[in-house]
Amino acid sequence: MRAGETSVPVDGPAVRISARGKRRRRTLIAVTVVFVVFCAATARLFVWPDQGMPSRVDAIVMLDSPGRPLNVAVRLAEQHRAPFLVISQGTPASRDPCPRPVPEVTLICFNPTPPTTQGEAEFVGRLARKHHWQSIAVVAITTQDSRARLRIERCFPGQVYIVTAPIKLSTWPYQISYEWAALVKALVFQRGC
Fold first, then answer.
1. Alpha-carbon distances of 6 from 11, 25, 100, rounded to whole Å
2. What are the residues whose beta carbons fall under 8 Å from the beta carbon of 44, sequence distance 6 or more?
3. Coil, strand, or helix at residue 193?
4. At 6, which helix (H) or strand (E)?
5. Could you give the angle at which helices 172-184 and 145-155 cross, rounded to 10 degrees?
6. Which residues contact 27 (CB under 8 A, 6 or more apart)?
7. How many alpha carbons lie under 13 Å from residue 31 in its C-beta half-sphere?
C-alpha cells in the first residue's frame, strides 16, 4: 500500500482509496449539502413564504411589482379589511394606475423616493406614524414577500402581514434571481429604514 492510501474492506478484495479520492468525495458532499440548503432556503423565502392576514388591519399597502398585486389589494379593500388603501405606483411610468376609490376606504397613491422597495418602506413608515397604524397588510408578489417584510418592518414598528399576488410561471427564475440579489443588498448594504 502506498503512502496516503487506505484500505477499505468490501465483500471481496480490499479497495484502495487515495487521499485525492477522499478530498473529491468530501468536496462533492459539501457541494451537495450547500446546493440542498440553497434550494431549501429559496423555497422557504421565495416560493412558499409565510403569508396571510387577520380579518382587519389598519391599512392595506400594495408594493409596485410585476404580476397583479393591484387586483389583490383592491379586492381586500372592497372587503373592507382596512380603512386605508395605499398604492405604490413605483415610478411615474408604472403600469398600475391609481384605482377607482372604494367606498369608506381612504385611497392614497404615491410614487416613492427612491423608486424602490426601500422608498416604499420609508413612505409607509411615515404614513403609519401620521395615522397611528398598529398593523398593515402588505400586498406583494410571492417572491418579494421576505424582502418586503424585512424592509417594511425596519420602518414600521407594528404588525406586518403579507398577502401575495401570483406571477406568471415564466417569470419565476428571473424573479427568484432578482430577489436573492436584492435580499443580500438589503441585509448587507442597506440595513436601515
1. 16, 14, 75
2. none
3. coil
4. strand 5-8
5. 30
6. none
7. 6
Closest CA to 116 of 84, 157, 144: 144
| SS3 readout for 34-78 | HHHHHHHHHHHHHHCCCCECCCCCCEEEECCCCCCHHHHHHHHHH
Cell (9 digits) for 186: 438589503
CA atoms of 90 and 69, how far apart (whole Å): 13
For residues 90 and 16, give the distance between their C-alpha atoms in angstroms, rounded to a whole number.
63
pLDDT tens digits in sequence order for the chain, 193 residues long: 555 555 555 555 555 667 777 888 888 888 888 888 887 777 777 777 777 889 999 999 999 988 789 999 999 999 999 999 999 997 655 667 899 999 999 999 999 999 999 999 999 999 999 999 999 999 999 889 899 999 999 999 999 999 999 888 898 899 999 998 999 999 899 888 8
28/47 Cα distance (integer angstroms): 27
Return the closest-CA partner of residue 151 out of 114, 115, 125: 125
- Collapsed DSSP state (helix, strand, coil) of residue 161: strand
Which of 93, 125, 87 has its CA nearest to residue 106? 87
Rounded to the nearest 10°, the torsion over CA 108, 110, 113, 115 is 130
Q: Which residue has the cell 418592518?
A: 153
pTM of the predicted model, to two decimals? Answer: 0.78
